[in-house]
Amino acid sequence: MPNKSSNKGHIPVRTCVVCRNRKDKQMMIRFEIVKGEFVIDFQKLMTGRGFYLCDDNACIAKLDKWMNKKKFKRGRDDFR
Ligand SMILES: [Zn+2]
Question: Which of the ends of the chain has fewer CB neighbours closer than 10 A, N or C?
Fold first, then answer.
């Protein structure tokens, strides 16, 4: 972690839901859970509750586990 106060630019960072690492949000995949289903927000225009995931195979591979833990399952329509 750099000690100098280099706040110029102020790059927004987001926390990956899988590995909890913080990264430049440009480097991450934004997705939402819509009616219990995983939907990638490619255009970053969705307005619901969003989550961020590293654009990384290791994190993508673990996403299913995360979704199970959060009880996000395909086919459920009672998630609000
Ligand atoms: Zn990650």
Answer: N
